[in-house]
Specification:
binds D-glutamic acid; single chain
Length: about 260
């Protein structure tokens, strides 16, 4: 049992899509959220730069005495998971990470493709490619880098049509493809599910079921807290927000994201 908070971080505000699930599924925990907005987006950076930034975020949260750390960022996970594992041994603090939910997507019946949409870094990093190689039919999964979305979400733009120009670039090459599932492989994307659904309809055939990994990740956090006997029986889901960016501008957007209804 521990009343210390759980630390959650992302390159920016995207991790709020995971935190809102944590608040729903683990409401007795308190949370410290750290958004590295000053350095976002991570998705266009080199592996070494992403790893260095991820380590700095972990250090920052450790300095705030968190009992566990949830890396609510697919890009940070893909770039730095081996270093993160070493850290776990060093600090004996559980660190939970997340990766694109292609496993449940590939378990869906159907003859269509699975589109995995994520940052450029995630789509090319070895850790993610190894995950893809473990799927029953890796060629069913098409990886689509989506530069440009993160910056708009960070700016608080959520109107579905405001993303059409970007989706034209991502999906026009696949016009008419039958798609069973679209994996939202970046934690910023669940906030614009409407834009994904609208553009899937414009370009693709098939059910195009949208899949995001936040519920699975939060369930894993719950299991890990149980394993380490770290559950908080009396917290009230308090959230403290910290950022390396402009806090006055970002906090209202962060709060709006936490409250946003899931479509
Ligand atoms: N939200 C992050 C993810 O899940 C990445 C965003 C970025 O490019 O900084 O991958």
């Amino acid at each position: 049992m521990s009343e210390r908070p759980v630390g959650v971080f992302d390159s920016g505000l995207g991790g709020a899509s995971v935190l809102r699930e944590a608040l729903r599924l683990l409401p007795n925990e308190n949370y410290i959220y750290y958004g590295d907005n000053g350095n976002a987006p991570y998705g266009d950076k080199s592996d070494d730069d992403i790893t260095a930034l991820t380590m700095a975020c972990i250090d920052k949260l450790l300095s705030m005495d968190v009992k566990a750390i949830l890396i609510a960022c697919n890009t940070a996970t893909a770039a730095s998971v081996s270093k993160v594992r070493q850290l776990m041994d060093q600090y004996s603090i559980p660190i939970i990470s997340m990766e694109p939910a292609i496993k449940p997507a590939c378990a869906l019946p159907g003859t269509g493709k699975v589109f995995m949409m994520a940052t450029l870094a995630t789509t090319r990093l070895d850790r993610y490619l190894a995950l893809q190689a473990r799927m029953p039919d890796p060629s069913r999964v098409i990886n689509i880098p989506c530069p440009g979305i993160v910056e708009r979400v960070e700016a608080g733009i959520f109107d579905d049509a405001a993303y059409d120009d970007l989706f034209d670039k991502y999906l026009a090459p696949y016009r008419g493809t039958e798609v069973d599932a679209i994996v939202l492989g970046c934690t910023h994307y669940p906030f614009i599910k409407g834009a994904f659904a609208r553009n899937a309809k414009r370009y693709l055939r098939g059910s195009c079921t949208l899949i995001d990994g936040s519920v699975g990740t939060v369930r894993q956090l719950g299991r890990i807290l149980d394993r380490y006997k770290l559950r908080n029986p009396c917290g009230a889901g308090k959230v403290e927000f910290h950022t390396s960016g402009d806090e006055a501008a970002l906090k209202p957007i962060f709060e709006k994201l936490l409250m946003q209804d899931k479509k």
